[in-house]
Structure formats: C-alpha cells, structure tokens
Amino acid sequence: MAEVHHFTYGVFNPIAAFLLAFLGSFFGLLSTARARDARTRGRRNRWLLIGAFAIGGGAIWLMHFAAMLGFEVPASPVRFDVPMTVASLAFAVFAVGAGLLMVGHGRRSLPRVVTAGVLTGGGVLAMHYTGMLGMHVSGEMRYDLTLVAASAIIAVVASTVALWFTVSVRGWLPISGAAVIMAIAVCGMHYTGMAAMSVHLDPGAPTGVTGLRPLTMIVPITLITAASIVGVALSALQAMTEEEFTDGAGTPRRGVHAETSGVSWSLKQATAAQTAVRRPSPRPVPMRTPTNG
C-alpha cells in the first residue's frame, strides 16, 4: 500500500474547502429563502435552481476539488480525467436540484424532507466517488467498506438537515449558522470518504498517467467559482428586480415608472388628464324671466 498525503499544503486546503462550502451553502440558503416568498411557481423554481447551483456546484463540488488539491501520492503522479470531473459536477447540481424541487413545493413535512434527503445524499455520494473515479494514479484505488458506509450515512444525514434548513431558516444570523453546519457536514463527508481510500501501486503499470495535473485544476476552480458567484448574483438581482416591480403574478404594480410598468403616456394625454382633474365643473346659469312693461 502506497503512502498517501491529504494535506500537502498544510491547512490551506481544508480552510479553502470549508470557505467554499460555507459560501455555497450561504448563497443557496438565501436563494431558497427567497423561493419561499415567491408568489408564482415559475419564480419559485428559478430561485430553487439558483440554490441548486450554489449548493451543488459551490458548497459540494468546488469544496471537493479544492480539498483534492492537497491530495498526493509521493510514489505516483496524480492526474484528473476531465469528462469524469464534469460528470461529478452534473451529479451534484442535479441531485441538489431534485431535492430542492421536492421540498420547495407543497406543504412541509418530515417524510418529504427525509425522502428528498436520501435522494440528494445519493447524488452527493455519486459526485464524490465519480470524482474519485476520475482521479488516475499508477496503480489501483481500493476502499474500506466500513468508512464508505460511514460517508454514505453522513451524506444522507447532512443532505436531510440541509434540506430542512432550506425550508425553515430565515434571517441573516440563522442562515449563517445553518451554512456553518452544512459546511462542516460536507467537509466531514469528504474527508471520511477520502479516509476510506487506499492506493496500491502496480510495479508493471506505465509511469505516465494521463489527465490534468492537480495544480492545473486551480484555473477551472477559480473560473467556475467566479462564474458561479457572478451568475448567482446577477440571477438573484434580476429576480428581485422583477419581483419589486410586479405584484407577484406577472402584472405590473400600480405607481411604478411608466417604462417599468409597460404603460406609455404621451405628454398630451398627461396634460389632458391633469386639466380634467383640476378644471372646475361649470355652474348652471339661472334663466331670467322677461318682465312686461
């Protein structure tokens, strides 16, 4: 069994991974809180999808690969397969999105949240072990089934708690506390899954391992992080702007600007309206009866 390092760069990797998990959870919980206040199904789905990208793509996937930057096998090069890495991202976003859509509609109930938590936890596991399958070394990776089962339990419990938070918490302070709990759970699941893995080198295996170098992953991680934050911010800003200037049913509110409400007024119409309001109504003139003589 080969020697394996999980913290090649010291505390940098776990701290960076925790911060990404916290930020993704925080943005996701803010989005789901807005989804609960949405008055139409379409807008609620939009907020839930924003939350799915924030939690699945940021809190889970980006956290995973930020932590993986610290993984090293001194006796073998470590490389990442691009298609499998992208597939793991799809698993994370799809699983979280499915769970959020399940609990985001209808009446809140414990069985619904637990069912969605099992579904989401399975997707998180698929993301983690698909990402591990996309990691290549000069040998074979084996897993301790006991620790794999422990990581599965952590993933399901963490997903269930996270989904309960998405339908319960409100306010900056409760959301921040919930995001901390979610970040700890996600990091705990990741490092439990990593502890289950062992590397067994094959002396007859070729020394050249194909794929991206671990440090090369910093570029896509940085780009995806920036794109996710900007995309979530712009989507949230657009959604909030539409909700501000409409009544929640897609129709313009009264009293907003003409160009926003979709009603165009000409200067002539406005003047005529003001004149009609301010001009006093004419009083009837009494008729004089003519007198004789």
TrEMBL record:
Per the record, a Pfam family?
MHYT
Q: Which residues form a coiled coil?
A: none
Instruction: Please give the start and end residues of each transmembrane region.
Output: 15-35, 47-70, 82-101, 113-133, 145-165, 172-197, 217-237
Its domain of life?
Answer: Bacteria
Q: Which GO terms describe its molecular function?
A: kinase activity
Positions of the region Disordered? 269-293
Q: List the signal peptide residues.
A: none
Q: Which UniProt keywords apply?
A: Kinase, Membrane, Transferase, Transmembrane, Transmembrane helix
Report if keyword Kinase is assigned.
Answer: yes
Which PANTHER family is this protein grouped with? Answer: DOMAIN SIGNALLING PROTEIN, PUTATIVE (AFU_ORTHOLOGUE AFUA_5G11310)-RELATED (PTHR35152:SF1)
Q: What is this protein called?
A: Histidine kinase
